[in-house]
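Quick question, first post here. What does this chain look like in 3D?
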Amino acid sequence: MRVVGLMSGTSADGVDAVLVRFSGSPQCPRWSLLQQASVPYPASLQERILAVGQGEPHSAATLLELAETITDYQAAAAKACDPDGTAALVGCHGQTVWHRPPERNGQDLTRRGASWQMLQAPLLAELLQRPVVHDFRAADLALGGQGAPLVPMADAALLGAGPGWRALLNLGGIANLTLIPPQQGPDRQAAVVGWDCGPANTLIDLAVEHFSSGQQRVDRNGERAAAGRVDEAVLQRWLQEPYLQQPPPKSTGRELFGRSDLQRRLAMLRHQPANDCIATLTAFTAAVVAQDLEQVVHRGRPKPVELVVAGGGCHNPVLMKQLEQRCRGLRVRRSDELALPASSREALVFALLAWWHHCKHPGNAPAVTGATQPSVLGVSVQPPGRQRFQPRRFQPGR
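> Answer (accepted):
Ran it through. Tokens below.
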């Protein structure tokens, strides 16, 4: 089956699209990437999305128009990737604007989690004339899970096992880790695990925007971080913060690592030069990942032998160098070396999750999210114009 996967992450910089062919069993799928495309958001749209994600108040009319605009860009990305409309199914993550993890008192759930991925799914299905699977996080959240990260089971299926424990790191807006057990040995039957580490590009991008008065949005090629010096003392204090010491399952987003958090950290840097601040924030992302991998060992799991990196952050050479320096003993390499495209890995994941939905195959992992059980993920909608309404004849007494 051919499936289009659509993904726009917490960086809110655009939509990544892939066209993938899946076959074989859901547990061990065979897949081939046929085509990929990316449609950037204009700066004005990115600003609107980030403003909503930072909790700024908006009218209902504004939110409705924003959802419609986001849907139009999702459709444009799908058409750019599959111009001939060969896909039988579309998997669309939508645009996250708010994520609230569940709250627990020990093992007791005191407040359910919730997550909002903005999308008008019936409109997208009509624009593409294809069934659309969306709202992937809701089922896991309803089962008491974090609703994130959802990528670990798909990571394991797409990437496969290696000779030792393998860590797959995604550096999008937020950094998340997947640990995949080895092909052989006593751990080969161990569960796949994963969690959200903390910030990846969110704070770096916000800092670049802040110091450039909105003229720049990313530290391209890590140039500003390379020109700065890391304040190691402040960085080590940051690593002691509650979320970063919390054991999995856990998930996070801009709600915790957003604009107000950046301002708090800049105040702690005591008005250091801009490039020093950006260098420290870049090193912080790598240090959070390194700390999490060390905590894996402290919690009784073997340390991975390699760190495979995907997502936009893998294009930042300073961030990659920081990972190599701080994740001692691990081979650090980009996922492209293992035939998993670093820039489209998450779009691939949601194509697979849509296919799994079609196959009625569970997509979440309770060991990752804390849900009470595995579940088929997503909600499927058909193109409204292709559905034929068959009125039922009224029968008295029934």
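The CA atoms of residues 162 and 346 lie 20 Å apart.
The two ends are 42 Å apart (CA to CA).
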